[in-house]
Amino acid sequence: MSSEEWRTFKLGDIAEIVGGGTPSTAKDEYWSDDIPWITPRDLSGSDEKYISRGERNISQNGLENSSAKLLPAGTVLLSTRAPIGYLRIALNPLSTNQGFKSLITKPDLVSNEFLYYLLKSQVSYLKSVGVGSTFAEISGGTLSRLEFRFPPLHEQIKIVEILSLLDEKIDLNHKTNQTLQEIAQAIFKEWFVDFNYPGATGEMVDSKMGLLPKGWRIQNLGELSSTITKGTTPTTLGDNFVEKGVRFLRVDCIDETYGIDESKSLFITQETHEKLRRSQLMQNDILITIAGSIGRLSIVSERVLPANLNQAIGIIRIDENIVPVNYIFQYLKQPIIRNKLLSGVTQSVQANISLQDLRSLLIIIPSKQILLSYKIILGVIQGYIDNNNNQSTSLQKIRDLLLSKFMRGDSKL
Questions:
Q1: 365, 382, 403 — which closes off a domain?
Q2: Lowest-pLDDT range of 65-69, 199-203, 216-220
Q3: Residue 65: its pLDDT value, please?
Q4: CA–CA separation, 14 vs 11, rounded Å?
Q5: pLDDT tens digits, one per residue of 254-313
């Protein structure tokens, strides 16, 4: 179809725009399991299309005594401050805080999924219209006046079908990787927590971390690493971010499923990257968020390199001659280890884990033979995970290219 058949609408013409709110936290009766309540934080760390609930819920009483509104399933949620541009579609009735302006579409004019994709393609533009001194925000009035071009409804549906197929495959890869991570964790627990590993004799000796199999030892993380450091922001050098260049990672790039979301990275010049030597990443570096959303983990793959990161992310570079990096990665994922790190969190401007806490963390080291067997198994699992991540990255690029093409109206379907 030709682009001349597309029509221009203001968002306020094709959707009801609804703000959110927060019930008083001083009243326990306003908070219960009744109504899912979404904040921008609930949308960070992943790139899914739909959302059903967040970390907290509110009661009917809380809904009625705040500016929060009950939104129907299918509503497009758009964060319009701190930050601007997070997007989801409500899978069921829910509410949001004031960080959102949600769009309830008029189904005779626009598909809610098409609006989701359209706004997703326009995040940079949306950020540019935000105003504010403390943080940028888009008001409901401003949002309602923004104009976009829309194809006829049947064409919207065709576009959504194509983009959704790509999203579904990306989501399937994501879920497969979650299962593979769970398998790796199950093997780790069986071997190194329950001590039910191949060839276990049951002979135990006492240690400062309790009873351990004979021949196992304890070392701190600093002794197992060639370096433990953290990133640096380019602004410390007087440099700024650029449109394209070397990848620069922030906390938001480290998602809760141990992956790196490349779509959320910023960019610096090659010259700036070379200046920030301390935080230049290498393949198999373990990343751990030490400020902000503390405790998220990931391993650097060749796919994201070259890359740099900010001071809210720690870098653990394991000496593979001593211990396999995947063993340490799985060790750090154990809830008891995460809790130990969080118990040492210091509070200044914001909570953070110190590098010294990381260096002094005690690690149980099994015998070389058991470590070698585990490394082989984890290598196979990690290979599948890397293949899925590489495929998802390629699919995301195809999706974004098609998204840009479709939204310009130059497609022929």
A1: 365
A2: 199-203
A3: 94
A4: 5
A5: 887 788 887 778 899 999 999 988 889 999 999 999 987 788 899 998 888 999 999 999
Q: What average pLDDT does the segment 96-117 reach?
A: 96
Q: Does residue 391 belong to any structural domain of this protein?
A: no
Residues 257, 180: Cα–Cα separation, whole Å: 11
Spatial separation of the C-alpha atoms in residues 79 and 242, rounded to whole Å: 24
Residue 351 token pair = 């909570």
Token code pair at residue 44: 């960070």
Distance CA 8, CA 5 (A): 10
Predicted pLDDT at 350: 60
DSSP secondary structure string for all residues of 186-219: HHHIIIIIS---TT----EE--BTB-EETT-EEE
Q: Cα separation of 240 and 231, whole Å?
A: 15
Separation CA 283–CA 305 (nearest Å): 8
Of 127, 150, 173, the position where a domain reaches its end is 150
Q: Tell me if the pTM is above 0.85.
A: no
For residue 226, CA distances in Å to 214, 221, 229 come to 27, 10, 10
Do 110 and 15 contact (CB within 8 A), yes or no?
yes
Rounding to the nearest 10 degrees, give the CA dihedral for residues 375, 381, 385, 386.
50
Distance in angstroms (rounded) separating the CA atoms of residues 68 and 75: 14
> Does residue 345 lie in a domain region?
yes
Confirm whether 125 is domain-assigned. Answer: yes
CATH number of the domain enclosing 229: 3.90.220.20
Helix (H, G, I), strand (E, B) or coil at 100: strand
Determine, yes or no, domain membership for 339: yes
Report how many helices (DSSP H) and strands (DSSP E) the chain contains, helices first. Answer: 12, 23
Q: Which residues fall within 8 angstroms of residue 76, CB to CB, at 6 or more apart?
A: 15, 87, 88, 89, 90, 102, 103, 104, 105, 112, 115, 116, 119
The CA-CA-CA angle for residues 253, 271, 288, to 5°, reads 25
Count structural domains, the chain.
2
Q: Which domain holds residue 134?
A: 3-150
Strand partners of residue 35: 58
Query: What is the pLDDT, as a whole number, of residue 45?
Result: 64
